[in-house]
Design goal:
Two copies of one chain form a homodimer.
Chain A: H1 2-10, E1 13-16, E2 22-25, H2 31-63, H3 65-86, H4 88-94, H5 98-108, H6 113-143, H7 145-167, H8 171-197, H9 201-225, H10 231-259, H11 266-269, H12 272-276, H13 279-289, H14 304-329, H15 336-366, H16 373-392, H17 408-411, H18 420-461, H19 463-472
Helix pairs in contact in A: 2-3, 3-5, 3-9, 5-9, 6-7, 6-8, 6-9, 6-13, 7-8, 10-13, 10-14, 10-15, 13-14, 14-18, 15-16, 15-18, 16-18
Chain lengths: 473, 473
Amino acid sequence: MASGKELCEGVEWRIRVVDGSSEVLVPPTGLARKVWLRTKGLISGLGMKVRMFLKQAWDMGANDPRKVIHCIKVGLALTIVSLVYFMRPLYDGVGGNAMWAIMTVVVVFEPTVGATLYKCLNRVCATCLAGFLAVGVHWIASQSGDRFEPFVVGASIFILASIATFSRFIPSVKSMFDYGAMIFILTFSIVAISGYRVDKLFDLAHQRISTIIIGTSLCILVIMLVCPIWSGQELHSLTVRNMDKLSDSLDGCVRQYFTNSNGEDDQKLQGYKCVLSSKASEESMANFARWEPSHGRFNFRHPWKQYLKIGASMRSCAYCIEALNSCINSENQAAESIKKHLSTSCLKVSSSSSSAIKELAESVKKMNKSPTIDLLVEEMNSALEELHNDLKSLSHLLNPSTTAENQISATGLVPFMEIIPAVTLASILIEISVRIEALVGSVEELVKESEMKDKIVAKEEKPEGTMKALQRV
Amino acid sequence: MASGKELCEGVEWRIRVVDGSSEVLVPPTGLARKVWLRTKGLISGLGMKVRMFLKQAWDMGANDPRKVIHCIKVGLALTIVSLVYFMRPLYDGVGGNAMWAIMTVVVVFEPTVGATLYKCLNRVCATCLAGFLAVGVHWIASQSGDRFEPFVVGASIFILASIATFSRFIPSVKSMFDYGAMIFILTFSIVAISGYRVDKLFDLAHQRISTIIIGTSLCILVIMLVCPIWSGQELHSLTVRNMDKLSDSLDGCVRQYFTNSNGEDDQKLQGYKCVLSSKASEESMANFARWEPSHGRFNFRHPWKQYLKIGASMRSCAYCIEALNSCINSENQAAESIKKHLSTSCLKVSSSSSSAIKELAESVKKMNKSPTIDLLVEEMNSALEELHNDLKSLSHLLNPSTTAENQISATGLVPFMEIIPAVTLASILIEISVRIEALVGSVEELVKESEMKDKIVAKEEKPEGTMKALQRV
């Protein structure tokens, strides 16, 4: 806008009038014009921002259509609840509080099945528990006479609300019942206080509970039947995807260093950063996955916690890749001859480690022990052995004199300082391979535990088989 | 329990009876006894768990009494709302929907001022906006005739709920208006549907909005007057605390390596892990701090986002400390002579870098540019120079032969492999000091921005001064 104004003031506009002379067109420099220009600028700026915002939203929807589907699901569930309210007979059945059903749908509907189930179960259980308690407190209060009644109710609300709020800070309660504790306080307060005025206490409780059950059942039906997104499945895919990224980053970084190519896909190289930042989402997904019934290849009580251990192992690898990356981008570069000396073995280590991670990803994907992982780890170890030997023989290339930089060309030897970056890189690579072995261990544990759970479930699902076995005894 | 049972079955109890012989006391092995033992075990196990849980809760409360205060605040606010409901005159004023006030208090009350303000403002604005929109839609629906009315209402709910849900996925909306979008859907649906039945539409909207305003004002009063916890202050202290931890870890790790002492406090050494895992809480605090008015030394629009940059710089240092830690705990240890050779300069680098970080923490704490930080960075750089020289002269200690392990004692020279761990450690230390310089930059930016904001606020607060300046012109 400012530049437009300058242009207006810089150029002089002339107009040829009838008598042949020309007149200077003085631009209207009054207040009105300034206001107009400023307003125009503001509006065009706003228009630009809105357009950017809409583009961002469109891209997000196009990149992940499941988000759009989720929105349609929410709209669907809410519209169905409205229909419940429109239909007279049902409306008479659940009372004028159909609003509770709407509220339940809005509050409880989450993108994944696990999160929705967690909220539904917490809501129903906490409402029932708080309702019963509130009725009890109300009975005690009504026995204590008109004068003490408000005090009893007030004190009970104060004490229970404080305790329930405190419980929300305790990690074990927070992870399982955070939402339930809030609903408990809410229901208890409303029922206890309403009880003071409204005498139809049981009616209120019955209405609230039945509408909430209608709302939650509707949510569960919609979320599980219309394109369900399972937290467990998401956690599983995230783990596999992160392993692939880790493997690509590791291989890409080392290859870029030794081949000096800048052709590597930068997004691929930075993939390890996703691993660094996915702790919070992994934890919440594992938390919600516990609430999900069997789906796909995952049984109820699938070892979801093991995914967190795998995530931690992956992050410990990613920290090292971050250090590796800083070696690569550092100002002090190793001498070319040193790079050449180490390149074969380093590339072998990185490619074998990254294929080991790829194989682990495959193993998690298929949820069975990979037949080739032991072989790959062995290969990685033999590559490490080779790297060790190359490092040992590095001293031959070394110039023992500290100030002999001018002798280099003559002898082909390298001053000690120019060895350091490559040696650092190599020893970080060695550390990464140690951490990959830990990753192998945690993946194997996951596969073993999941197979064990599968067997238990299979046993429970075949009671005839168990009966026969018992008869034989 | 199991071991107790074994003991019972293993030892034979005899009792001497009157005639001199002794009788074997057969333990009651019936079903009843087994059930009793199992029940006893279950109960004692449960009791143990409950005791552990209570101990954990007690410790949590004792470690952070502010959590207990928060719980009392929630109880207090809820009890006051109940009093509002108990007092007839006010009750008649806000109608039978005093329940909405209770609900608002329960849902909106968060541990920090920022989070509570965020929810309060979102709730009030979204309720008003959705209320007006719903009244408009209801008017259009009522104009379209009895047959189409449900369709118009249903379609509007479907469309608006879907769009609002979608907007919650967009990062910029999510960080500012996530809660507002949910309340918008809720209020719009309830008002639009209730409009179909209840004719007193404006009454409903008026009631809901006035009760919500009562609830939110009460929450804001209680949260800001009774021992307030400010998100901004928390973020500030977390940043300072994390810097101190980073500095302690860095210094402790290097000192433990070179002095071989295991006396270092392990908790201090692991402090950098807090830095690694505090990204999520930093982000949410910075998000809530934006909603807070001026408090303490922080003005409204204090550059909270800059804290996130500082956090990122700290994490990049912490990644390197993690790599450093793995060097220290690695199996391959450097030869003692090498360690001795590098120890002085490495210790100097680590102590100067860690005192630079400590000084940065002090600078953030006092929110002014430290006068000594430049000096400390210079000191760190000269220590680095020394380390460089020590590394260069390392080649003198090196045994050029690769298989000459038996010659070591004779010559005092060290094989190349035993140099590597110390060299790696040194080069990671160098990398850490590079990252500390980036940290210095981001802290200085924070201090500068905050001083700038202070000046702007000081200007705005002195309108007389501005007036005088204008008169002079």
